[in-house]
Amino acid sequence: MWELKSRWRAVGLGLLLLLSAAAQAAPSAPRRYTPDWQSLDSRPLPRWFDEAKFGVFVHWGVFSVPAWGSEWFWWHWQSERIPAYENFMKENYPPGFSYADFGPQFTARFFHPDQWAALFQAAGAKYVVLTTKHHEGFTNWPSPVSWNWNSKDVGPHRDLVGELGAAVRKRNLRYGLYHSLLEWFHPLYLLDKKNGFKTQYFVGAKTMPELYDLVNSYKPDLIWSDGDWESPDTYWNSTAFLAWLYNDSPVKDEVVVNDRWGQNCSCHHGGYYNCEDKYTPHSLPKHKWEMCTSVDSASWGYRRDMTLSTIASEQEIIEELIQTVSLGGNYLLNIGPTKDGLIDPIFQERLLAVGKWLQINGEAIYASHPWRVQFEKNITVVWYTSKDSAVYATFLYWPENGIINLKSPQTTSATKVTMLGMEGYLTWTQDLQDGFLISLPPLPPTALPVEFAWTLKLINVK
């Protein structure tokens, strides 16, 4: 009897050990996020976004038809009744012409998504963000709740979101979708607004069905939300949507979102922070962020009255990119195509200039991290990044004496310095008073790897 009990004890102990081992070997259940900001904000940001550093933003819609003033044309004309916009309509369109009449003229006739994708890849972008719907409400995909105000039923008769997505993904670029929560003149939104946003007719019938449809249909890597400023996140049901996005959506593990999900969310809640358009911090933020800006400083959409004075120069754009990445951010540069789907040559030129610079200096940008010192200013301006054991010092102006003086890096006997795009080591000295002195290559400007913003790679510095 005692022998039988012992055997059962042995069997029981063995089963316990097997169950314990199985429990340890089994993968832990994925974390479930609850629909509140404390839980949602704890989600780690997918790694790809921080490593990407540079993206292209595309503002395209019916506002590309009047192509005058800005992408807020309808609002400035019909709501604010700005005289310049009213006069523009009187001088160029017949009486009674409505904004909806612009829809059939949004043809996208010369839109070739593979050409766009090739341009964005040549620009060095790692992700592309397309407007699926701006505040005018027109959707660039066949939204089932758009009531014929979409690119499949009106204008191009094409699924613009789907076509561009397929093209950029063939080139291994990440695909992001901009989506405006609000619509200026939608009757249900105006009703909710009149009710002090105590009702949610518009959210239930339009905004949320669109967001779920975009995610399920196109599986975006990024959702760039906007149009949130008039009402709280509780009106938009933002936290419920994000909980589904993180827990159960087809992109739950890789998707990234920004911070525009309701009043007071910007710079406080979401995946990464935009804070505001063209946001530029002066010191290293504690949270991942993105600067979004436009090649045309006066508009995000294409406009026929664009002048060279509002176009950022190649140097200005590259300096902004360097500064943004040094401070831990991503740089999202916007262009606006024409109603026909053409990208203006000046926009192409600026994008290709960034790509040319990144071909040489991308090592200091992609997948880099902020260094312990982000920048210093003496004879020239120097911005620092780091990756693995290397420190990168990008200086914006070539010193007349051909010597760079770096105050922040501490040299060692094993320190080596190279310039990206050139072969061979540079000579350097350590001076107790002047610091780390690096002799630059004695070459004419035409022989340098890039025209401005040169990068030094520092190995074995502290």
Automatic annotation (TrEMBL):
Nucleotidyltransferase as UniProt keyword: no
Localization per record: Lysosome
Site label May be important for catalysis, positions: 292
Its EC number(s): 3.2.1.51
One MF term in the entry's GO annotations: alpha-L-fucosidase activity
Domain Alpha-L-fucosidase C-terminal positions: 378-458
GO annotations of cellular component type: lysosome
Signal peptide from the UniProt entry: 1-25
UniProt entry tagged with the keyword Cytoplasm: no
Known role: Alpha-L-fucosidase is responsible for hydrolyzing the alpha-1,6-linked fucose joined to the reducing-end N-acetylglucosamine of the carbohydrate moieties of glycoproteins.
Protein name as annotated: Alpha-L-fucosidase
Species whose genome carries this gene: Cricetulus griseus
